[in-house]
């Protein structure tokens, strides 16, 4: 079975054609789906479940999409990029997260979000206790090295940011033969969220945290990272690969925003970010098929409709 057909069967919907190579800088591919799968791995997830006792259906539907892929492929991994529950409490995690995305907790690569640290007492206690995840972490999946980074200082239930940066630098140096993807709750780049237009004394907020994420981005960029995944903005957005200064470049990292696991959705304030390629305001999950030389992405909404799909060559050439 060709991989495109397999994707459609797993998600229960016909897939869309792959995006063509319309821009030279992002080197979008038309991969050979009949090629051998040596080094292949699958990663699927989203962020911002905000699990509570209301609006359960979207959360159950996105969880079902992930579980279907995990059940079909024992080697596949899920990810959750923060805000597991709305108030960050252990009671919410045990009762509401557990019955949806908690069904595959043992196969989830976790990243902490602001709701996970700001509402629990002590800060972050519910998240750390329930997930068993460290403050930051890395794992190897197939030919890829995945990094989960913590956006929050130790005083806010996060980590020592200087120590985290040193760890990231050392781990990147220790794994030169792997492709790289990074996960952190706050996006480095995204369009303006409608929720923030009336906040911060009327100052336009672009939902980016360059001051916090910039040092990581520079290290990851230098090491050949191909893409980064964030949540926080309650929508799906795919942006062009960018350098840390925001310049669109094939030497940069592609940012995905996927705060779509179940929280109330929010649109953008026009115009979109100048590097934005796709915006979808819908609950759903994004799947990454990871190869030694490329990755393929598919965003599927909660009803099984594929709304974004494409492929790109990795920035690194593995020996």
Structural description of this entry:
The protein is an alpha/beta fold. 23% of the residues lie in helices and 22% in strands. The protein contains seven helices and 13 strands. The chain has a seven-stranded mixed sheet with strand order 4-5-6-7-9-8-10, with no helix packed on it. α3 packs across α5 and α6 (161-174) packs parallel to α7. Mean pLDDT is 86; it is low at 1-36 and 197-204.
Topology:
Elements: H1 3-11, E1 41-46, H2 56-72, E2 77-81, H3 90-97, E3 108-111, H4 114-118, H5 125-131, E4 137-141, E5 144-148, H6 161-174, E6 179-183, H7 210-223, E7 227-230, E8 236-239, E9 254-258, E10 276-280, E11 284-290, E12 294-301, E13 306-313
Helix pairs in contact: 3-5, 6-7
How would you characterize the largest beta sheet?
7 strands, mixed
Query: Radius of gyration in whole Å, from Cα?
Result: 18 Å
Helical region count? 7
Helix and strand sequence: HEHEHEHHEEHEHEEEEEEE
Strand sequence of the main sheet, in spatial order? 4-5-6-7-9-8-10
Unreliable parts? 1-36, 197-204
Note the overall shape. Answer: globular
Query: Mean pLDDT across all residues, rounded?
Result: 86
Helix content: 10-25%
Structural class: alpha/beta
Ends distance = 29 Å
Number of strands: 13
Note the beta-strand portion.
Answer: 15-25%
List descriptors.
about 325 residues; alpha/beta; 7-stranded mixed β-sheet; 6-stranded mixed β-sheet; 7 helices; 13 strands
Summarize the structure.
The protein has 319 residues and is of the alpha/beta class.
């Amino acid at each position: 079975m060709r991989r495109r057909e397999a994707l459609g069967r797993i998600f229960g919907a016909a897939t869309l054609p792959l995006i063509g190579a319309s821009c030279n800088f992002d080197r979008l591919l038309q991969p050979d789906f009949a090629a051998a799968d040596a080094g292949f791995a699958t990663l699927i997830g989203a962020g911002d479940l905000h699990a509570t006792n209301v609006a359960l259906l979207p959360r159950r539907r996105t969880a079902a999409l992930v579980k279907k892929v995990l059940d079909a492929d024992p080697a596949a991994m899920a990810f959750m990029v923060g805000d597991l529950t709305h108030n960050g409490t252990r009671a919410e995690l045990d009762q509401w997260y557990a019955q949806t995305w908690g069904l595959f907790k043992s196969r989830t690569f976790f990243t902490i979000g602001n709701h996970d640290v700001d509402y629990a007492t002590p800060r972050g206690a519910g998240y750390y206790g329930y997930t068993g995840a460290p403050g930051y972490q890395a794992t190897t999946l197939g030919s890829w090295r995945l990094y989960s980074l913590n956006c929050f200082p130790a005083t806010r239930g996060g980590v020592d940011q200087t120590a985290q940066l040193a760890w990231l630098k050392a781990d990147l140096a220790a794994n030169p033969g792997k492709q790289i993807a990074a996960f952190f709750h706050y996006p480095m780049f995204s369009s303006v969220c409608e929720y923030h237009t009336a906040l911060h004394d009327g100052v336009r907020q672009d939902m980016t945290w360059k001051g916090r994420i910039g040092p990581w981005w520079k290290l990851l960029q230098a090491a050949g990272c191909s893409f980064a995944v964030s949540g926080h903005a309650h929508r799906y957005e795919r942006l062009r690969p960018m350098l840390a200064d925001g310049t669109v470049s094939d030497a940069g990292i592609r940012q995905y925003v996927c705060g779509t696991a179940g929280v109330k959705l929010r649109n953008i304030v026009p115009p979109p970010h100048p590097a934005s390629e796709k915006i979808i305001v819908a609950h759903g999950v994004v799947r990454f098929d990871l190869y030694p030389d490329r990755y393929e992405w598919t965003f599927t909404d909660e009803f099984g409709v594929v709304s974004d799909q494409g492929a790109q060559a990795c920035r690194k050439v593995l020996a």
